[in-house]
Write a structure and sequence with these properties.
Layout (H helix, E strand, L loop, with lengths): L9 H6 L3 E14 L2 E14 L3 E5 L6 H9 L6 E10 L2 E2 L5 H7 L4 E4 L3 H4 L6 H16 L7 H11 L5 H4 L9 H13 L5 E5 L7 H18 L2 E6 L2 H7 L2 E6 L2 E7 H6 L4 H8 L40 H5 L13 E3 L13 H10 L1
Helix pairs in contact: 5-6, 6-8, 8-9
Length: 361
């Protein structure tokens, strides 16, 4: 298992590259019968070529909503109300449908959370991979005589599927969960994109298969210098595989740090709570400290400026009235935090974080 924290060159190499993906102050809401859901507020995110970034947080924090907005596949009820997002100089939010369709699959690909749902159940997996290759080959004006079938076989071979010639003829229901996930990865990487978004790619898989799938994704990302956004609620996986981690809470990005820095000295109270609520091999259940309260109802008109304020012991009226911006009080570019009262970067913030750093690595 490869660990980003054991790679001292990972942060240096990433810092030398300009952002491939840059999200600035993104706001998104859903208009529903029950009210307006303010799903994203002021989200800032950047991702560089060859960098693997983990996007972590509780269910409902806006991780998947953000990825769908970047790809232009949000629900019809979604509306972007502010901010900007660019990919390789292309304005993702202002691009027309044709431009986004050409980018998806060719330059930006996504591995969805449930492969059995994402794959077409009545088409052979080889046909589905060929569809992707054909679409983008035609868009580029490429010669299809090279053979789509050979391309599909190569795509399956690259994700370590045994006997790819035979598997090409299989339907999704004939494959195991782990094998379906490998097919999804093959689909996503068939056109060698510059950016891969992996949305909970190990959900429903056993621990051994989880490790194999993550090794596969990150191995190909390193080999191809492909930027990767890894969406997960599993801090242990993020600690093992990501160069940098962005923590989200209730639609806001609250902390952005190099992985080693985040687990050694988490600065945002929500991040510290997340780490302290994660079990480790040397701890007991009694030592776990859960995150208090629940995510706020994002339909409320009286949401506090910092959406963690009602769950935070240190919050005051300033936190409720003025939203702290990610990076506004940064000590170093490698560790940014959106909090009026963050823990000092060099401080031993909590014994739980220190003990869990090794447990999660």
């Amino acid at each position: 298992m490869s660990s980003a924290r054991n790679n001292p060159l990972a942060g240096t190499a990433a810092a030398a590259n300009p952002p491939l993906l840059e999200v600035r102050d993104l706001n998104l809401e859903f208009r529903t019968r029950d009210g307006c859901v303010r799903a994203l507020e002021g989200v800032n995110l950047h991702l560089k070529k060859g960098e693997i970034v983990g996007l972590v947080g509780e269910s409902g924090s806006g991780k998947s909503v953000l990825s769908y907005a970047l790809l232009g596949i949000s629900d019809r009820a979604a509306r972007i109300t502010g901010g900007a997002a660019s990919f390789g100089g292309i304005d993702l939010l202002g691009a027309d449908a044709r431009t986004l369709a050409e980018l998806r699959g060719r330059e930006i690909s996504m591995v969805f959370q449930s492969p059995r749902t994402a794959l077409n159940p009545i088409r052979r997996v080889g046909d589905q991979i060929e569809d992707v290759l054909r679409r983008h080959a035609i868009a580029r004006g490429a010669d299809l005589s090279r053979g789509l079938r050979e391309g599909a076989i190569q795509a399956l071979r690259e994700v370590a599927i045994p006997d790819p010639e035979r598997r090409l003829q299989a339907y999704p229901f004939e494959l195991s969960g782990g094998m379906c996930q490998r097919v999804m990865i093959a689909l996503a990487l068939a056109c060698r994109p510059s950016l891969l978004i992996a949305d909970e790619p190990t959900t429903g898989l056993d621990v051994t298969t989880q490790a194999a799938v993550m090794d596969l994704i990150t191995g190909l990302a390193r080999e191809r210098q492909m930027a990767t956004l890894f969406i997960t609620h599993d801090l242990a996986l993020a600690a093992d595989y990501c160069d940098r981690i962005v923590v989200m809470h209730a639609g806001q990005a609250v902390e952005d740090a190099v992985t080693s820095s985040l687990f050694r000295a988490p600065r945002h109270p929500y991040t510290r709570r997340l780490i302290s609520s994660t079990p480790g091999p040397s701890g007991s259940l009694a030592s776990l400290a859960p995150v208090p309260g629940n995510l706020p109802d994002l339909r409320r008109d009286d949401l506090p400026a910092c959406r963690f304020a009602e769950r935070c012991e240190s919050a005051d009226q300033r936190c409720r009235r003025v939203r702290p911006l990610l990076g506004e009080r940064e000590v170093a570019l490698a560790h940014r935090v959106a909090c009026w009262y963050p823990a000092d970067l060099g401080a031993d913030t909590t014994s739980d974080a220190a003990s869990n750093q090794g447990a999660l690595g």
